[in-house]
Specification:
By secondary structure, the chain is mostly beta strands. The chain folds into two domains: 31 residues; 227 residues, 7 Propeller (Methylamine Dehydrogenase, Chain H). It is built from two helices and 22 strands. It has an eight-stranded mixed beta sheet with strand order 16-17-18-19-1-22-21-20, with no helix packed on it. The radius of gyration is 22 Å and the shape is globular. The mean pLDDT is 92. The structure holds calcium ion. Calcium ion binds next to strand 2, strand 16 and strand 20.
Length: 266
């Protein structure tokens, strides 16, 4: 009987130790620090130095770009290799163009402070419809089911792609809320977001809002040093060939980059 009690005690102890270990491991994983990345340039392409880039997406072999500034905003279809604009639509002077995304062959474009979005036929650039939202409009992307937009805060808004009604919000956090989320791109289950006026892209978990990675693009383009308005802004992804493109406002170049992991222990 005494031996049975000893065995029972040992078994209980083992179970408790396993339980504590699982608890510690799961707790650690939830507090895991983001992976830090630098970059390597795979190829450099020309980019219109007059394009105040606010939205960028790659679809069906072409770049689609939205440019901002009052009286200068536009929607463009661009040949990647040459930077040539092969289709363009100018916005009315009072609108400041912002992010774009393509969903079901429609281009959805935000405007900055007009609380209005435009929906275009992807081929003809004809305006199909308009919609409104209560916040500023900064970046927009989609996950195949929902539109996801930023407004310069730390909040990402998930919108129904048919009604443009808000479904939910997620706060982006890396210990503290991460604000100034700008141009967006949904890449392999994560949301990539430019941070306005920084050389950084946050890689975000769409469910939790947690930043799972940081890309430091310091030094990729020196034009920012000459004109502080020429900031990093524009992420596009070609899922067919797994190519990641980035550019900036009035940058003369657009880059195909690979991410290079920095953290030694991850
Ligand atoms: Ca984008």
């Amino acid at each position: 009987m005494k031996k049975q009690q000893q065995i029972a005690t040992i078994l209980i102890t083992i179970v408790i130790i396993i339980g504590i270990t699982i608890f510690i491991l799961s707790n650690n994983s939830s507090q895991q620090t983001p992976i830090n990345y630098t970059y390597e340039i795979v190829k450099t392409y020309p980019h219109d130095p007059e394009a105040f880039t606010q939205g960028l997406e790659f679809n069906s072999g072409f770049l689609f770009e939205s440019t901002g500034l009052f009286e200068e905003s536009s929607l463009r279809k661009v040949i990647l290799e040459t930077g040539e604009v092969i289709k363009s639509k100018t916005l009315p002077d009072q609108y400041f163009g912002e992010g774009i995304t393509i969903f079901n062959n429609k281009i959805i474009q935000l405007t900055w402070i007009s609380n209005k979005g435009f929906v275009y036929n992807m081929d003809s650039f004809e305006v199909i419809s308009e919609f409104s939202y209560p916040t500023q409009g900064w970046g927009i992307t989609n996950d195949g089911s929902n539109l996801i937009m930023s407004d310069g805060s730390s909040t990402l808004y998930f919108l129904d792609p048919n009604t443009y009604e808000k479904i939910k919000e997620v706060t982006v956090i890396d210990q503290n809320p991460v604000s100034n989320l700008n141009e967006l791109e949904f890449i392999q289950g994560q949301i990539y977001a430019n941070i306005f006026q920084q050389h950084k892209i946050a890689i975000i978990n769409p469910q939790s809002g947690k930043v799972e990675g940081w890309v430091d693009l310091t030094g990729i383009n020196e034009e920012t040093n000459v004109d502080p308005n020429k900031v990093l802004n524009g992420i596009a992804y070609d899922k067919e060939t797994d190519r990641l493109f980035i550019t900036g406002k009035k940058w003369s170049k657009l880059y195909h980059i690979n991410l290079v992991k920095l953290n030694k222990l991850q």
